Automatic annotation (TrEMBL):
The keyword Transmembrane helix applies. Keywords: Membrane, Transmembrane, Transmembrane helix. The chain crosses the membrane at residues 7-33, 59-84, 105-123, 129-147, 209-229, 241-259, 265-285. This is Uncharacterized protein. It comes from Elysia marginata.
Amino acid sequence: MPYHASLIVFPALNITALIFMIGTYVVIGLGFFPDGRLMQDSITNVFATYKLQIEPSEWVFVLWILIYTYQLLWIMYTLGTILCSTGSGFRGFPSYMDPQHIPNTVVYASIVCSVLNSLWVVLFSHHMIVSACVLLFITTPLQYLMIGTQLVSLSKATPELESVDRSLDVWVTRICMIEGMSLMATLSTTTTFFNFGMVYRYTLHLDPMATAILVQLMFLIGLLTWFVLDIKIMDKFTRYIVSPYIVTCLVQLAIVTNIPVTQALSYGLLSVYVFMTLIKCSILVHRHRNSE
């Protein structure tokens, strides 16, 4: 087979993505343990400074560890295809050079997201909540675009992957890559809502209770929109994605455990989110069995 130099782009991109991801981990670490130079204040202190009435408990930050571990998992998977795969892939080229089900645009986007996430931590640590919020409104749609691109690419490639006995790649991509991306996008969405609430409360001086209700409504509308799109319209692509529901439930639980018992709205929303999660899981199992 003739050698195509352009095919080394995928391995090079993934190594670059890993380097940028490690850089993001360093920046986030400094965000929690500021050095006083690059980071002025810790992320937890900034959240405490611009406190909202629906502020989640601090244990919710453990989700960051889970999400970035998951993100590292899918990068390691793509790196694994570079280091370990030697069989023929699409169009006769080795699969590590031309995987098809992982488009270069997704890796480019992950690099950009790593940069934007790092920049958000820096801005947030300097109490630049308006600039940080604007940045999130750029980063979050990019992450959903990245997920959409990956979902469409995997859907197109699945028949050929299965025809060459690479069904495992399909499932690993779903579980490691797409679920990892969804976790990150859900985290960004959640952070966007809280950051937006901070801007409204402390820059536009909106009433504290009105701000809390606004943020809660944003959560509700966001998950309801995803639920309808997921179940009714995009099931072919999004059937196996469950992280938006689980993360939303955990964040709402963190809110409930950090507010007075009188906040009935938060408890009601938690019940709604748990109910939606159970429906999603039931439909997923039912449709998967019918597709076998």
